[in-house]
Amino acid sequence: MELYGYPLKAKFNQPRPPPPKVLPATSTMTANYKNRIPYHPESFSMPWMPNSYYKAAALNPTLSPLTESFPGLPPTKIVPLISERPNGVFTRHTLDDWHRSNLTNYKESETTRHNAERLRADLNRTIKDVYQQAKRTQGESTKNLGERVNDIEYWKSELCIELDAMIRETNSLADMQKRLERALADTEGPFQVAHKCLLNREKRMGIDLVNDDVEKQLITEIKIIRSCRERLQQCLDTVNSQLMCNKEARQELEKDLADKQMGHHIDSKCYQLKNTSRGIHFFKGVERIDATVSVPETWARFTDNNIFRSQSARATSAKLRASTESLLMGTADEMWRQFSKVNDAFTSRITEIANAKSKIQTHLAKTRQEIFQIETKIQVIQKTIKDKEVQLKVAQTRLDERTRRPNVELCRDAAQIRLVQEVNEINETLRNLHQCLRASEDMLQMLVRSKGVLEHDLVVKNNSLFIDQERCMGMRKSYPSTVQILGYV
């Protein structure tokens, strides 16, 4: 076997003569060396090339005469001039050179790492100083923004309290207006509510479209409302005027609250911004723009005036409601009795639907939890497959690199055997992981189908519950109007 990196044997040379028993004459040795390849150690570190071989073979070496310091050897101890290495293989370097080279590389690596550690320490100190200064400056701005956010939260809470009170008062006065209008229109309002409830319940889907007790009570209520024809005329114009005043005050509060919420949102966003937050950009010259239109004193005074106007309107509205309360008591009893029956029927039906919905949601939650766990496992398996593929790449890359070892270095050593075993083990693991992945994906599809069935049933129940609880009961909170005045609701 020819070793890579060594010159080929020149088969065109003459066969080597047998070693002489004594040293020949100098002229004879010179003649014999003309057809031999001179020994050049540096030439064996390069790939074999025919031109360089012929060039080296064309040299004519000469031998110097023997001196007194080297008188020669006895005939019985003459060393033959034949290489004792098989196939003409020459040693490139000594083992000491190999160890010395390794030690030199180790020392250079240690020196480089030490310098890198010193540089990293200096950089860490510089970066720490920069971060501390930026943190102090940014902390002061953050503190001011936090104080501004607290001020906005205070006035926003005051506005919310007043707005809630105004909304309640406006709703109460609107209920009063509706009661008066129903009385003037021969109790047309409750009739329309009952009629709308029947129409809304016609929008139920599937198995929930049943003729239940709620529907029967609604039909009875329509008949009773038609018999209530008492008329009410007082205070209707006054109530309408006061409602307009309440709405104007409410609009001012809502506008101010919307501005406060927007300002609070913006300042809270600015307060929560960090160096790692998304959406931060450069805005050159923005610090020179001043778009402010108020100062803290005028800003606080504006909100305080809005609250005062709202409180005045609420006081007037409360007095007006008290003056009209006695006008509605006569029509309350009969409408309330049927109203209560219908509401009880609605409550009973809503409870049944809510229980069915709760059971469906329980099963759906369990199914979704199982889907989540299966999806999590699929992600874990996929990540494990990727990690194993990276490990497989490393092992196969090692094996591929080791195939480039020269000559006798291509040894089937323990590292080679373990690398081959590692590749086989990883391949087997990957096959098992892919099987687990397919099984998990199949189970996920089954769970998704089961979830779809439950979700469809839940949509049906939600639709029925929304119609009964939100649409129907939402409208029935203010009908009949006199019921609320008498305190039955």
TrEMBL record:
Coiled coil regions, renumbered to chain: 106-133
- Cellular compartment(s): Cytoplasm, Cytoskeleton, Cilium axoneme; Cytoplasm, Cytoskeleton, Flagellum axoneme; Cytoplasmic vesicle, Secretory vesicle, Acrosome outer membrane
Q: How does the protein's chain sit in the membrane according to the entry?
A: Peripheral membrane protein
Highest taxon in the source lineage: Eukaryota
Q: Which GO terms describe its cellular component?
A: axoneme; microtubule cytoskeleton; nucleus; outer acrosomal membrane; sperm flagellum
A single Gene Ontology biological process assigned to it is: cilium movement involved in cell motility
Q: Where is the signal peptide?
A: none
Q: Which InterPro entries match?
A: Tektin-like (IPR048256), Tektins (IPR000435)
UniProt entry keywords in alphabetical sequence: Cell projection, Cilium, Coiled coil, Cytoplasm, Cytoplasmic vesicle, Cytoskeleton, Flagellum, Membrane, Ubl conjugation
Q: What is its main location?
A: cytoplasm
Q: Which family is it part of?
A: Belongs to the tektin family.
Role of this protein: Microtubule inner protein (MIP) part of the dynein-decorated doublet microtubules (DMTs) in cilia and flagellar axoneme. Forms filamentous polymers in the walls of ciliary and flagellar microtubules. Required for normal sperm mobility.
Assembly information from the UniProt record: Microtubule inner protein component of sperm flagellar doublet microtubules. Interacts with TEKT1, TEKT2, TEKT4 and TEKT5. Interacts with CCDC38.
Q: What is this protein called?
A: Tektin
Give the source species: Poecile atricapillus (Black-capped chickadee)
